[in-house]
Each structure stands twice: as C-alpha cells, then as structure tokens.
Amino acid sequence: MIDHVSVGVSDLERAARFYESALTPLGLSRLVTRPASVGFGKSYPEFWINLRVEMAQVAPGSGVHICLRAKSTEAVDAFHAAALNAGGCSDGAPGLRPHDRVRYYAAFVTDPDGNRIEAVTFPGG
C-alpha cells in the first residue's frame, strides 16, 4: 500500500549517520545520496530523510511515527541499541506488546530531530 516514506531532518549528515547505524539491523542501507536527501532501502529507497534547515524539533506529542518491519526480535533489539548508540533516545524499550488482535514485539526510538521510529516483528506462538 505504501511505496516509501520520508522524514524531515535539520542536519542531513548527522541524520544520515544516525539512520545508517539504526537501519542496518533491519537490513536497510544507504542507496541514494543527493544534496538535500538520502534514501535507504533494501533494493530501492523506501525510507528517505530530507533536509529542512529551518525545521524545529518534532514535538513529542505530534502523534506521527514510522514503523519498519524487522525479521526477528533480535533485529528489533539491535535496532534499538544501534539507535541509542548513534544519538537517538528510547521511546519504548524492546518488548512484547500483546493487544486484542495481534501480538507483536517492538521498540521505539526518536531520532536527533524527534522523529519517532519503531521496529516491529511478529513472533510465532
């Protein structure tokens, strides 16, 4: 249903370093570099960061977040750890989140600009 998503960032190089680290455990790498944007993906850019020099920090209560699929709980854990090591903040430690319709394992982080990024997997059982 969705082909690609993008988030605004105030410092493209800082954000590119953050996302290169955080997205590697999910199998995504930098595929495209342009003067004001960087695209990450597996075979084509599915996730973009776009330079917005005058951008204010994303408000914590904005309600917007991007969720990316992970292959395993270990990949979710690695995403969370890599994001924190690269300058992000935890917005929900890795763990099982049982809900009415689906049981999933996820972790949430905010990037240096406040964008909320989630990694999720659906363990069997």
Overview of the molecule:
This protein has 125 residues and is of the alpha/beta class. 20% of the residues lie in helices and 42% in strands. It has two helices and eight strands. It has helices spanning 12-23, 73-85; strands at 5-9, 29-34, 37-41, 45-51, 65-69, 89-98, 103-110, 116-121. It has a four-stranded mixed β-sheet, covered by helices on one side. A four-stranded mixed β-sheet has the order 5-8-7-6, covered by helices on one side. A hairpin with a 4-residue loop joins strand 6 (89-98) and strand 7. Helix 1 packs antiparallel against helix 2 (73-85). The longest helix has 13 residues, at 73-85. It is globular, with a radius of gyration of 14 Å.
Strand order of the largest sheet: 1-4-3-2
β-sheet strand percentage: 35-45%
Number of strands: 8
Major sheet summary line: 4 strands, mixed
Q: Separation of termini?
A: 27 Å
- Report the uncertain regions: none
**Alpha-carbon Rg, integer:** 14 Å
SS field, number of helical segments: 2
Mean pLDDT metric: 95
Shape: globular
Tell me the structural class.
alpha/beta
Helix content: 10-25%
Can you write the helix and strand succession as a string? EHEEEEHEEE
Give a topology summary:
Elements: E1 5-9, H1 12-23, E2 29-34, E3 37-41, E4 45-51, E5 65-69, H2 73-85, E6 89-98, E7 103-110, E8 116-121
Parallel strand pairs: 1-4, 5-8
Antiparallel strand pairs: 2-3, 3-4, 6-7, 7-8
Helix pairs in contact: 1-2
Features:
single chain; about 120 residues; four-stranded mixed beta sheet
